Task: structure prediction
Amino acid sequence: MRSLEMTGAWVLEPKVFPDERGTFHEWYRGEEFREATGYDLALAQANCSVSRRGVLRGVHFADVPPGQAKYITCVRGTVLDVVVDLRTGSPTFGRWEAVRLGDGTHHAVFLAEGLGHAFMALSDDATVVYLCSTGYAPEREHGVHPLDADLGIDWPEGVTPVLSPKDAEAPSLAEAERTGLLPSYEACLARYEELRGRPSSG
Result:
């Protein structure tokens, strides 16, 4: 697993074994995950979403604690997967990183609690599966508008974004910060240390 620029985000670039029957790859290995993150992935829920080209989901995040970590891959088609640092006080607050996920590369992305997640389907029937560390709890889950100009995510040109009504009404990053909706970097670091079984040094 390769660490992305922001704390708490990694990308898996597995070795794919092709033969005349098809391909095989390991999209999750507990030992490798633990080595990269320092703790085990708690699995509380597994989701699958199918999207037509242009569908844009996110930017979603959950209250910390407990937060919701996600381990994501695209098993059919292609998506542009985006991780956004929504943790106030973080040295990379407001920044984002994009990884193309698809059935050609078989890459996967892990984002820790407090980070925001979004993706845009670049093909029809783009199928994304993801593992979640906590179950769905609507009272703890929130969003930031994925087309917020200040956030400035570089979505692909020539693809018209299709948003759900909820995502279309999500606040801007500035509004979410002003109203206290965003998790703090300090709370997220404490959560990561808790998961690693060590007390926070803060």
About this structure: The chain has four helices and 13 strands. The CA atoms of residues 19 and 25 lie 12 Å apart. The chain has one domain: 2-195.
